[in-house]
Amino acid sequence: MYSYDDAGLFDVEAGLSPDFDTLWSDRCQDAITSLQRRIASGELGFASLPERDPIDLITWAEGRRAEGWTDQIVIGIGGSSLGTRAVLEAMGPAWKAAIRTHFAENLDPVTLHAILEQVDLQKTLLVVVTKSGSTIETMSQLWILYDALVRVVGREQADRQVIAITDPQKGSLRALAQERDWESFDVPPNVGGRFSVLSAVSLVPLALAGYDIDGLLGGARRCLDGGEDAWMGLARIAAQHVALGDQGYGQLVMMAYADRLNALVDWFRQLWAESLGKARDRRGARVHTGITPIKAIGAIDQHSQVQLYMEGPNDKQILFVETRSHSTDLTIPLSPSLPASLSHLQGRSVAEILQAEAQGTRAALARAGRPTACWRLESTGAASVGGFLTAWMVITALAGELLDIDAFDQPGVELGKKIAHGLLGHPEHGALADETGAVPMSDTAGAWTARR
């Protein structure tokens, strides 16, 4: 499914030491034992998701597609949408899917209006995803889209076109689903949003779109088929990134050399940042730890970011992500009119040129003393993508164990949410908003006028 080349982490002057494995093996084993214990106890549910048989979900999705729906709007943000988008784009092309998928993620009125202009609401499903049921961006857009749907098809029919994916027992969305008899799926209570890509959160919209979710889960299972050796291999990768962070390489660039991998990097960025950026360790000591993830796309960012990586501060570890096989390819034709300086490109395929650019960039970075590694997928098919997702969820969780922090909470995002609610008039958070000195939204027009 994939291969991993870490030679570039050791071959540079300030990279990992030759005795890295000896120094870190015990810590890796301790991290594995701790994480496996949490999984076995039922505290963490993400690792067992691939074991579920998807046949009922596949059958259900086939039945819904047979009803003639042309589009689905996935309403969600963060872990409720990034995984779905990542798989759709990687395994795509999404525009060829059995049901076209649109994402109502960020609260942008222009984007939301554009979605409404693109779809026929009579033939569109609303798939709303929020575990808590109170995500402000998601519930705001749900209400706008649901209202638009009711205006077109009526309340009774609209309720048949909404699918809710949320907590099995609690939250505003669960209450709405029960009240209005919306079809619904559960997000397991022990699975957090950024670790939920192999749950109903993504599998439901992927199945509706006609994607191979059985193959996706199969690839996820295969990732850990090697038993303890597989776990140790992933722990070693986690330890490499943590060790480099300790050595001053506090930024991790994931540079994907395929447009189809673009959204996978977005998914990884949330997973890594939200899991590992923590103020305190498990003992409560203030640590402010974390390795900042940076997104780059090859070859595009050779023309924007690589100058910084080559000659700027040597504080970045750079992970190339490539695919051995593209679903299609094109060849530069033989032509006497091609300039002599480009004649060596005749007969070369686009994939071949892209691969040469990746190799050239990595070699140049190595010469500049920058630590690099390469993760190479066999393809962007279901099994390879499923393996990538599982591998990086496990690597991230193990990195949390090595850093002695909780990789499964996100206390740092809650304060901003509460202040925003207070600014919008929520009675429980108004005082908190007042403490910040922020201006309530009802007063913003005057505030802007006063500042001219």
TrEMBL record:
Keywords (A to Z) from UniProt: Cytoplasm, Gluconeogenesis, Glycolysis, Isomerase
InterPro entries (alphabetical): G6P_Isomerase, G6P_Isomerase_C, Phosphoglucose_isomerase_CS, SIS_dom_sf, SIS_PGI_1, SIS_PGI_2
Active-site residues, record numbering mapped to chain: 274 (proton donor), 303, 417
GO (cellular component) term, any one: cytosol
UniProt xrefs under CDD domains: SIS_PGI_1 (cd05015), SIS_PGI_2 (cd05016)
Gene3D superfamilies, per the entry: 1.10.1390.10, Glucose-6-phosphate isomerase like protein, domain 1
EC number: 5.3.1.9
Catalytic activity line of the entry: alpha-D-glucose 6-phosphate = beta-D-fructose 6-phosphate
Keyword Isomerase: yes
Gene Ontology biological process terms, A to Z: gluconeogenesis; glucose 6-phosphate metabolic process; glycolytic process
PROSITE patterns: P_GLUCOSE_ISOMERASE_2, P_GLUCOSE_ISOMERASE_3
One Pfam family cited in the UniProt record for this chain: PGI
Domain of life: Bacteria
Subcellular location: Cytoplasm
Any one GO molecular function term: glucose-6-phosphate isomerase activity
Pathway linked to the protein: Carbohydrate degradation; glycolysis; D-glyceraldehyde 3-phosphate and glycerone phosphate from D-glucose: step 2/4; Carbohydrate biosynthesis; gluconeogenesis
Purpose: Catalyzes the reversible isomerization of glucose-6-phosphate to fructose-6-phosphate.
Family: Belongs to the GPI family.
PANTHER family the record matches: GLUCOSE-6-PHOSPHATE ISOMERASE
Protein name as it appears in the record: Glucose-6-phosphate isomerase
Protein species of origin: Lujinxingia vulgaris
